[in-house]
Structures are given as C-alpha cells and as structure tokens.
Amino acid sequence: MNTNAPENSGPGKRKPVVVSGGLNRRDILLAVAILVGILGFVAAAVYSTGTAKNPNMLSGEIREKYRTGEQIRDLVVSGKGVSDKVVNSGCYLKVYVASVDKIYNVMLAESEWETKRVGDKIEFLRPASERQ
Prior knowledge:
Elements: H1 25-51, E1 57-67, E2 72-78, E3 81-88, E4 91-97, E5 102-108, H2 110-115, E6 121-125
Antiparallel strand pairs: 1-4, 1-6, 2-3, 4-5
C-alpha cells in the first residue's frame, strides 16, 4: 500500500465540486458593460438604417401645377373580361430642386395632385435617366 497517494485519486473517487457564493462586484460590472455594449450596437444600427437617405430621392418646392388633359388607359383582357385602369391622368407639377438647380416635371395621380399647392414641399423619385 502506498501511503503517499492522494486520498481521492482512486478509481471511484472524484474531486469535490466547489461552488462559489453569489456574484461579486467585478461580475456585475462586466455584465452591465456587456449589456450596454449590445444595446448601444442595436441602437446605432436602428439609427443608421433610419437615417440613410436614398440618393435617388429628390426634394423640392412646387412651382406650378398643370394638366395636359390627356389620359392614358391600360386595358387588360383576361378570361374574366376586359378591365381598364387610368395609368396617366395628365396631372403634373413643376418642382424646383435647389440641390441640383433644376426644374422637374412630376406626374401625380389626380387625387394626390388636387391636394398639393404651389409652394409646398414634395419628395419624388429621380427620373430613370438620371438615377445613380
């Protein structure tokens, strides 16, 4: 028999599990720092997606309202019959965009065109020929 062998080194013996009592100040500060970091990252992501501006959106001032009187209709023939829809109502606005120093003709639906007044601000999509 070996008297120098440790008591719990036998085949059926394991080291006892040590449980530390509670949290200390360092653990709490570390958890709070991690939580603040995660919340800050989420807030920055939400802010950056909400403030990203589409370069193809223009904002300008309405200078003039006019109608061309034409209406373009889209006829659809299907098994249910023929249906039509007004695609272009002939209602336009002349909008001055100061950032590019240019006047654009913006087509609107008649219902929206009636609510707009000269001097109002409006945002619209840049024409396809000028998109970036």
